[in-house]
Write a structure and sequence with these properties.
The chain starts with a helix and ends in an 18-residue tail after the last helix. The chain is globular, with a radius of gyration of 46 Å. It is α/β, with parallel strands linked by helices.
Length: about 375
Amino acid sequence: MTAPRDGARLAGAAFASALLLAGCSSGGTGAGSAGRPVAAPAQDVLLRAAAVPGPDPFTASTVRNTVRPSDPPGAPEGRRARELDGATPGLYGGTRAVGSCDVERQVSLLTGDAKKARAFAEASGIPEAGVAAWLRGLTPVVLRVDARVTGHGYRGGRAEAHQAVLQSGTAVLVDQYGSPRVRCAGGNPLRAPGADRGGVYVGVPWDAFDPDHVVVVRPTGAVVTSLVIVNATDRTWIERRTGSDGEADRKPAVEPSCDPDACTLDGSGTPDPDGSGPATPAPSTPDRPAPPEDVPPTPDAPTEPAPEAPDPSTAPAPDPYTDPDTEPLPDPFEEPPVPPDGELPPEELFPSGTVPDGPGTFEAFEG
């Protein structure tokens, strides 16, 4: 009698599951019994410890046994680090003259399996034939922050994307824009995280894990030729040329203004969605510099009032006999000048009679 009862129970469970799936699959906005929309399930964010390969690795680990760099100080109280530029000094660490990953071994492991190489290239956004050259152009370093990324696992001959947080101390290969591109513990391709930064953290958190201080590495706007990282052995600054394995490491020509253990990677200070982030101070206007104490200030020179313009209605009329710009009036009693002998006066040469108008047409040219 037990079998029928168990069969009925399993059938009822299957029916309930079918109803649940039907409610959640109606365009992502299914309604419950009260007409409320059914929320989409939160995306899982896998926690990836630094030394654990994790499930679905592409290759065996290529991490070299290097000294783990110290973590940077936490973000200031009340400020959350959200984004860090890929060229931020102290974002990465490493050991002088030693790469954190064995790049040549990584090349050999991937190129030795054509199916994995194809899946790796598709996930990385590069041509399959260029996998080896692309890997050799990356820079091996170690993360000094917990970073959010899009990781890829290898399953069934394909790369499957997932959201993940990489623990500080994870050995990675970064590109010429400062972005992590390969996780060396499992050869997994890395890309920028999804636009939705939410989700449910899945996995075992490490002791120092703090969701508020997980950062996103923002690629630089232009190609960088070197990265300023922290030397894990003596806590000094190292300048590592991008695309090198550490053999050209040197002291930076211009070191950051703070000590590696004191520099706080507080990011760009991107405010939270509710607008509770740090306020941007208004630009201040510089004060006018005061004169030196031993030099007395120069007194201002007295200013004389400008002369008033004369009123044209009260100004006297110009005297025609004294004003050089005014011609004198002719004397009516003065006799006209006598022309020289043999000449006619002007009024006889040019009589004052009316001169007839000329013809309106030139008849001489007609016909």
